[in-house]
Structures are given as C-alpha cells and as structure tokens.
Amino acid sequence: MSLEKKTLAGAAALVSGALLLTSCSSAGADTESSGTTADGKTVISVALFGTMGFEESGLFDRYEELNPDIEIQYESTQGESKYWPALQTKLQSGTGLADVQGIEVARIADVVANQSDKWADLSQFETADQVPNYLEWKADAATTADGKVLALGTDIGPMGICYRSDLLEQAGLPTDPAELATAMTDWDAYLDLGRQYQAAAPAGSAWTDFSGGLYNAIVSTEETIYYDESGEPVWDTNPAVREAFDTAAEAGQEGLTAKLEQFNDPNWDPGFASGAFATIACPSWMIGYIKGKAGDAGSGLWNVTSLPGGAGGNWGGSYLAIPEASENKEEAAKLIKWMTDAEQQAEVFTNVGNFPSNTQGIELVGDTTDEYFQGAPIGQIFSDSAQAAPTQILGEGDGVIKTALTQALLSVEANGVSPDEAWANAESEISNQIG
Amino acid sequence: MTTSTTTTSPPAPAGPPPRVVVAEKLTWKQRLFRAEEKGAPYAYIAPFFLLFLAFGLFPLVYTAWISLYEQKLGSSTSTFVGLDNYRWLFENEKFWNSLWRTLTIGVLSTVPQLIFALVLAHALNYRMRGRNFFRISMIMPYATSVAAATLVFAQIFGRDAGFANWVLSFFGVDAIDWRNGDWTAQLAIAVIVTWRWTGYNALIYLAGMQSISQDLYESASLDGANRWQQFWHITLPGLRPTILFTVVVSTIGATQLFAEPLLFGGGTANGGALNQYQTVTLFMYQQGWTFGFLGRAAAIAWVTFLIIILLVAVNTSIARMRDRDPAQAAARRARRAAAKGTR
Amino acid sequence: MATTTAVQQASIAAPMPEGRKRRYRAPDQAGPFTYVLLAVTAFLFIVPFYYMIVAGSRPMAEMNRTPPPWLPGPDLWSNMVKAFQQQNIGLAVWNSFLVSAAITVATLLFCTLAGFAFAKLRFKGRSTFFGITIATLMIPPTLGVVPLYMVMADLQLTGNLWSVILPTMVTAFGVFFMRQYLVQTLPDELLEAARMDGATSTRTFFSIVLPIARPGMAVLGMLTFMTAWNEFFWPVIALNSSNPTVQVALNNLGSGYVPDQSVIMAGTLVGTLPVIVVFLIMGRQIVNGIMAGAVKG
Question: Measured at the alpha carbon of residue A240, what is the angle toward residues B291 and A261, in degrees to the nearest 5?
C-alpha cells in the first residue's frame, strides 16, 4: 500500500464522509419540511421576498418566545421577479420549499387558476378563523371556485407620492404635503410640476425615478386593468392602460425620469440617498424600502402626500401560503394565523409601512405617524387611499403583462424607442408568454 | 484493496471472457490474473463512459425529445406538439435577436482578447525581472469567478458613480448609461469577458511560443532577420495551431455566455430593455426558468447545439486545409524573410 | 456536465514534463516598453480586487462620491458579517468546498484510470473509445440542462449538493490530459517488470502508475478545483438559496434585495478569498500547470 494510495483513499473517504454528513443534515435543513432540531423543536421555514416586515419587526423572535417548541428559519430572497421563477422550480420538484411561502398579489390569480393542487387549503386549518377578517376582495382573490382558500393576505398597497422636500425646495416647489396635494390635481398636473422641477433642479436629479413606476401608480387607481370580470385579457383594448402607458412614456421622453429601472438597476438603490430623483410613486410598502435605502442620513428629508387628485389606488401587496408538500401544515398554519392577526399587521405597518389587509388591523393603524417622514400621518394617508381604491380585477397574466409593459417603458426612456413601437414590442412579448 | 477497487468500479462492459484453453491447464489464480488483465482497461474507462452516458449523451438526446412537447415548469403534464416549439422559435424575432447579440458580443470580446493576449505573450517572452509576478497577475482574473467579476464590473460601469465614468470624465466624456445603452452594455460585457480571459490566453500563447524550436530563430537571426520579422514569420505561423485552438474554444465559450449578461442586468434574464445583451443561453434560461417553457428551452438548446457543431466543423476544416506542417512552412518563410531582410 | 471553459481552454494538448526537449531559453532582455505594458496590464488585472476591498469596507454613500475613495475604510469586517448573515455565505463557502473537493477527487481518480488505460494498456477498441472521448469535448454541457434539470427534479435531487457533483465527476479533458502525461512519463519497462512480478493491473496502477502520475494529477487537480469552485450556470439552476454554493450565493447577492452594495462587495470578497489565498501560495505552480497543459505535445 503506497503512500499515494493512502492519501487518495483517505481524501476520498473524508470527502464522501463529509458529504454524507451534510446531505443527511441538510436533507432536513434545506427541504425544511420535516425538520426538527436536535432539542426536539419543530422547525418552520419561512421564505419571503423583499421586505415583508416580519423579521424587521422582530415578530419571528417573538413567536419563538411565545412558542418555545417552535424554531423559525427565515429567508428573504431577491426581488419578486426572481423569487417567483425560483419558487416555480421548487414547486416543480417538490423540494426546497419552505413551510410558509410569500406570494405577490399579481401572481395570486395564477396560483388560484393553475396551482390549486400545489398549495394547502387554509380553510382546513386554524387559519380558517382569519378569513372573515379580511377586506373582501383580498380574501376572494385567493379563493378558488370550489371554495379552497390558498393563501392569506398580509398587506395591500394603498398609494401615495413620496418626495424629497429638500430637493423640491431647492427647485422652488411647494414642500408642504397639503400644498403639494392641492397643486397636483391630476397626473398631468404632476407632470407639469415635474417640468417646473426639471427646469430648476439640481444637476443629476430628475422628477421621478422610473416611468415604469409612474405607470404602475397610474393604473393602480383603475378597477379594470389587464383582465375583465369574465377573466378575459383586455389590457390591449383597455384605454386606461394605454393612457397610463402614454402618460408615463411622455414623462420618460421629456427626461422627467431618472431612467432607473426599479429593483433591477443597481443605481436605483443609491438614488434614494443621492437625490437622483425627487419623487416616487409610493405604495405603502415603499415606505420601508425608502428607509432602508436612504438610511439614517435620509431621515427628515422625505415626506408623503396623497396621489394626484386624492385618488385611491392599490399597487401590490402579498399573501402567505403553505405548499401542499409541507409536512408541518398545522404548525405553519398557526404561524400564519398569528402573523396576519390585526396586532401584528399593525406592528409591521408601524415599522416598515406594509399596510394591513386585515380590517381590524386597518382600524388600528389609522393614527400612525412616521418621524422619518417628517411626522407625516402615514396611517391616514394610506387608509384614505385604501378606502377610495376601487376593487381591482385580478388576472392570471397580471405579473407577465406588468413586467412587459414596464420593460417597454424603460426602452422608451432609456433607449429612445417610440412609445408606439415599445407598445408593439410589449404586445408581442406578452402574446409570446400568455397568448 | 485491489479487489475492492475492481468491485467498486463498475464491471467492464462485456469484455470477452478469457477463452478456456484446456491444454494450458491454468490454475485458478492464473485465470483470474488473465481475466483481470483483460477486463481492467474496460473497467478503467468505464466510469468516464458511464458518467458521460448518464450526464452528457442522455440529456442531449432527451433534450430533442422534450423539445417536441409543451412542458411547463411547475406542472406535471406535458402535451406532444410536434415541431411547434421549433416553428415558434424560428418565427420569434427575439431568438434571432439573441443569436445576433451572441455574435456581436462574441466578436467584441473574442477578437480584442486574442490580439491582446498575443501581444502580452510576446512581452512575457522576454527575459525580465519579476517574471513570476507578471505571470501570476495574468491569471488572477481567470481564478476569479464570473459572478464575482461581473458584480465588481457592474459597479465599475455604474452610471451615476461608476469608476469607468469617473475616469472618462477626465477626457470630457459625459456620464454614459452603460447598462441601458445598446452598444455600451454589450461593450461593458465584452470588457468583463476580455478581462477574465486575456491573461489566460496569453499564457497559452506563451507556452506555444516556447515550444517553437529555437533553431528556427537562431538560423533566422543568423540570416539577419530582426525581432519583428522573426515574430511575424516564425512565431505567428508556429502559433497557428494554438491560435486556431483558442479561436475554437472562445467561439464555443461565446455561444454559452450567460453569467455576465445575467448579472450585469441585475439578475433578470431580459438582457436589457431592448434585449440588447440577451445572449442565446440567457434567452434559453429566460424561456425555461423565468417563463417556465421547458419545451421551448429544449428546442433552443438543440438549435444552438447544431449551430455549434456547424461552427466547429467549419473551424476544423479551415484548420485542416491550412495547417499542413506549420513548422516547416514557418522555417521556409523565415528563410525567405531573412533573405529579403539581408538584401 | 459543466466544467466548461476553464478546463477546456487548457485542453490545447498534452502536458509536457520538463526536460523532454532542450530547455527553452528566453530570447532577449525586456526593454522599458515591455515593462510598462506588463505593469499596466497587471494593474488592470488586479485593480478590481482592490476595488472589492475598498467598496466592501466603506458605506455605499462614500463609494458614490466622485472621486471615489482610494483607501479601504473601517467597515470591512462588519460588512462581511452582514453578508454572512444575509446570504448564507458561510454555508456557501463550506458547500463550495465540499462540492469542489468531491469533484476534484473523483475527477483525479477516474481520469487517471482512464488516462492510464488509453496511454499504456492494449485492448480492443482503444482508439475508437479514445476518439469518442475527444469528440465529447465539443459538446457544450449547457445544452443538456433542461432534461438534466427534469431528471434531478424527479430524483428529488435539486437543491441537493449531489445534483451538482454527479454530472461533473469526470471530464474528457482530464482523461486526455492524464493520457498525454502518462504516455510521456510512464516507462513501458516499469509496467512490464511489474507484470513479470505477477502484479495485477490494478495493483500496478496503485503502486506504480499513481506515484508517477502525481505531478500531472496535481496540475489537473488545481485546475479542476478552481473550475468547480467557479462553476455558475448549472448550480444556479439546480441549487437554491437555502443550500447554495458560493456562486449561487453571489448570484443572489447580485440579484437585488441586499440592502447595500458594500455588503455585496464584502460578500464577493468572502467568496473570492479562498481562491486568492490558493493563488498567493501556489500561483507559480498554477501558472506552470496551465502552461504545461497548453504545450502542444
């Protein structure tokens, strides 16, 4: 037996031993469904996207304190446009799924229509008690025709406009929320203000971040967007969509936007701190995002006001669901129930701004103000917006269509493509995927 | 130990059993010895071929099969659709766009890369101080992962505070929106590729240069050819097989460009608002794993495979045609050049 | 599967053990121009690493100033800790180590075995098999990725490290590399003598071939390890963020939702550090290995 033989055999044994070890231990940890820890605690894994605010508000830690036999493993993955495809691959193989997964509102119709066999029916668990507490549309959107409840709502996305009052002041525009709201009677007035701003703005600063964001804000006030009530896609004939697209495109062409694609352009995040844009369409969940990106230095610089014309709207919002493949459904359902209780939703709102979809939660947050945003009455602003918002009709392809149209708008503002051509490109892209 | 090794490696694929010849009266031990000797080679190459069958050939053939089906990610059913996926593919301008972008980014990255590598190799071939330092620095980029390199360069090519724009500002160039622009994004990606591979190719060329026979240079310099003439008439022709090889490999590498455009775009598979840097592999990934059309992704994979086969065939036939004993040809040319030089 | 470019790039031809030809003598002393050219290039090749350190050690806001700061700041450690917490970088480094080590060991064993068979053993169909081996070099592994994914999903292996290890346990390049190496270094007489002593081929392999193949295996091992460490495409598809390799974790870092760029850069640094350390220790051997692998035999 030569030395090499020994070394080689030894190395092989070492590596395969280590691998066996990890594949055993990680079989529990990364499929995370059946896991119990060494000391006998039940492990519930939670996989969310973005800043959903539970971890940020310390709620998981508190749940573990309240339930000493539970251990929560939390991960937040990427932006939603990357989270969702990854979730699909996991659903396909049935592995790597967490016990609790987040689902964005634009995907919920797809889930209800096509994946009802992949998700647990929450009306069979403790979560059933929670369903009646929701805004009606929020609960309906996650319920199948035969009455299965596939997900419970976390937040909704009532709208406002966030702005940098220091930059507006430099450009000689009103900085008081009420004054600004009066000046913005509609979206055209918002663009007019933008033109004034652009004329006097500090170098390298634009009126708003991205025409795609502006577009999403405009359509957020509509009832019928991409699909009609019968479930047929109508986005290409819906004048509201085209008008919103054209308005946003106009802003992009005139240089009122900073050309920073939301969530994907690496320059977007620093832009919150550097003042690359003065205003941003602000669903409630954006509040927490701004705080995170603008950092402590941004405290007191930002403020919030209502949408032009005081319109109500809704952009985004999320759900929590349990994959059918989970082996801890009972415990996961208890966790979801607790996470979506009014008190917890209110707490998340106070911390990161995600607005409750639980009606009692909404009542709790009405008086909330936010020091970071110069003491703005964010509870009232977003409550009003939620109240005034129409009940949007959701469709299977919402996510796909929204992404394609925002991409098209990016090509208008950043590459000088004409709005008509960009629209046509988006049309073919969409028909490619859902047509 | 020996027996355990033979049993752990898969048995030889049908190695003919030793013919039993009665006359010789072999002992059991001898027979075993013979069998082992005959079977061993097959057992040795078996792991390679079994693994290749399982993870190379089978997936490739299965890809063709899947490409005939409509197969959605996340759903367990699939429908036979014949050649629909291919029809869809050939009618889809995004596919043609991705082929075109693969080509342009490929050219933008490969050509400067190889030329620059040649220059560097030439420089490295001198006797010098710090030889090892320079050589090691050449392959630091190669040791860096694509992901790490791309993340760094994505910041360097930032529009608002990127290092590249800051440097360019000294030359009076306005801030460039690298990511959103058409050619600028391709250029930035080409820079990443070039950065990672130039030094590596330089070392390959250097090795090639050092394997060219010294006699050629000596006789050439005796004939009075200067350094430049020697480079042009001996080094380059002598390197031709190496150059052709790097061209083939870079071509294959370019058809598979993926991580750079993916991460440069911030992790989305669009390759920019105009798909201006969506390579064909990125397009395949987008169809398969972002949109969930595995059948279409399979069709894209097969078409790409055929294109690569074609490219390689063209490349090798060119090589065969022109590459007849380069050393002798080089020597001939060097003598001719030297003769010219002295005249 | 996988182990694409890097190793294939080296596959130009056989390794050449030193001393076979007349030792190469570099032509002339380098002039100042050569030094300048090389120094500038070396600077360009190294500066991104430095950028990583600077950007990973300062708050994002400082990096966004013009001109950017030149020296590293104080936050490197805390940013690294953040990266560890946010994207499982610690687990990722460990996973990458396991995957790369397993792939390297398997590749070395299988490639040396096959290389030995092709180099020195006589058997029916040898040249055909060898021809096939070379031909497989031309098949880009990315293309089989759809069925590979489906099969791994069926086997419930996606998300598991085995899904990344299994397809890469042997490479045609490695077989070719070891064959060329053994053709040139392994004397036939030695094998014949062993045979006379009654050693089986397996015994011969372990007691004679392996010791002689060791320098070649070292080179192949380093290249394989580095390639496996840096493999991106397939791991990104097959693994997910709960059980990542370094490259998968870096992909997640780069895909947004990590609060700031300094953390991204610190994470990148952590993921690259092992390779840099290997380089500082073994840079010369790696260079020689690549060049040896490149010489037309």
Answer: 50
Antiparallel, parallel or unpaired: β A206-208 and A277-283: parallel
User: Residue A232 corresponds to which tokens in the numbers above?
Assistant: 């047929």
Distance between start and end Cα atoms, chain B:
71
- Average pLDDT of the segment spanning A385-413: 91
Q: Which residue from B48, B141, B156 is facing C51, i.e. has the nearest CB?
A: B156
C136 and chain A in contact, CB less than 8 A? no
Which H or E run includes A49?
strand A42-49
- Which CATH code for domain C80-291? 1.10.3720.10
Q: Which residues of C touch A8 (CB under 8 A)?
A: 105, 108-109, 210
Cβ-nearest to A88 among B74, B268, B270: B74
Residue pair B9/C201 in contact by the 8 Å Cβ criterion: no
CA–CA dist A229, A232 (Å, integer)? 7
Q: Does A416 touch chain C (CB under 8 A)?
A: no
Spatial CA neighbour of A287 closest among A272, A275, A276, A274: A272
CA atoms within 13 A on the CB side of A159: 26
Q: Residue C149's pLDDT is what?
A: 84
Q: What proportion of chain A, given as a percentage, has pLDDT over 70?
A: 90
- Amino acid letter, A122: L
Cis before C74 (ω within 30): no
Measured CA to CA, the distance from residue B284 to residue B301 in angstroms comes to: 7
Q: C198: which DSSP letter?
A: T
Query: pLDDT confidence of C16, banded at 50, 70, 90?
Result: very low
DSSP string, C156-192: T-TTSTHHHHGGGS--HHHHHHHHHHHHHHS-HHHHH
Q: How far apart are CA B64 and CA B69, in angstroms?
A: 10
CA dihedral A322, A324, A325, A326 (to 10 degrees): 40
- Where along chain C do its domains lie? 80-291
The pLDDT value given to residue B12: 42
Helices (H), A165-283: 165-170, 177-183, 187-200, 211-219, 239-253, 268-274
Q: Are C95 and C243 in contact (CB under 8 A)?
A: yes
Q: Which residues of chain B have pLDDT under 70?
A: 1-25, 74-76, 319-343
Tally Cβ neighbours within 10 Å of residue A240: 16
Q: Are B154 and A266 in contact (CB under 8 A)?
A: yes
Q: Which residues contact B325 (CB under 8 A, 6 or more apart)?
A: none
Residues 264-293 of A with CB under 8 A from C: 264, 266, 269-270, 273-274, 292-293
Of the two residues A110 and A4, the one the predictor is more confident about is A110
C199 CB within 8 Å of a chain A CB: no
Q: What angle do CA B330, B335, B336 make, to 5 degrees?
A: 95
Looking at the DSSP bridge assignments, the partners of residue A257 are A208
Measured CA angle at B146 (ends A415, B278), to 5 deg: 30
| pTM of the predicted model as reported, rounded to 2 decimal places | 0.83
